[in-house]
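Dear support,

I submitted the protein below through the web form. The confirmation email said the job was done, but the results page showed an empty box. After a refresh the structure appeared. I'm attaching both so you can tell me whether what I see now is the final result or a partial one.
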Amino acid sequence: MKQKHADSPSAFLAAAMAVTGAAMLLCPLIGQNAEMNRSAAEYDDLRVQLKSEEPAQATDAPAQGKSVLRVLLGFPGATQVPLELPKTDESPPEIDIGTGADLAACLAQNDDFIAWIRIPGTNVDYPVVWTDDADHYLHHTFTGKQGAAGTLFSLMKTDYSIPSRNIAIYGHHLKSSGEKMFTSLMRYKDADFYAGHETVLLDTLYESGSYRIFAVLNFHSGEWDASQADFESDAAFLEFIRYARRNALYDTGVTVGAEDSILTLITCDRSYGGKAGRLAVVAVLEKSRRNL
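What the results page shows now:
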């Protein structure tokens, strides 16, 4: 019996249908990836606009007192009252920290601005907003444009002016657009990457700090409040630390005490628990200076 050739009409039709089906599946993904890249690219422009060439040093002049910029510039939402520190004639100690962000320029762009975060050796180099409208910033960029990249944010239960014992910052893990927003945090699941990338820099309107990562852990949404800002006692704070250490993916050897302050970076991790999967990178404050 004569066999059907591969280029027969039925074979051609089947191949065409397969290609069409694949295109229908791929096109939305390609479009989504392009949109994510477009919204994430906005931050490349922001870095040019809002950052100086060199990080600010602790010996710089306070430049109007960045902690009171919200009030001085007349922006709404100036609910965090800056601390009144005793005046001294002594120069502050030299501390080589800072992200290089122009905080006044950032605040002028968006009056929800509260901080700039940078993790040397990664793509994390972004502004952070302070808000209770998380849904808005999950779907809008720092300049207010709708975009899948969103904006890094802290909830208003985090008080930057005191500051809270734990400063928590949320950000997207954009799996299909390369290392944008908090996607780079996934690298910390590898202990080999942690070595040499332990430092997180955070410039807020109130304080500049250098943090050292001490725990990287997965958890499910609802089983642990990684964004808990304040604690009723030192014992409660230390229990939070013990939870992070107990569930950490590896031991960093970094110690944290009852007198310390920490920073928690939170993103989605669907490789752990699907939609409920989360990844937290937790760091302890090592050195800081007030931006007063």
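Response: this is the final, complete result; the empty box was a page-load delay. Helices lie at 9-50, 69-72, 103-109, 134-139, 191-194, 234-246.
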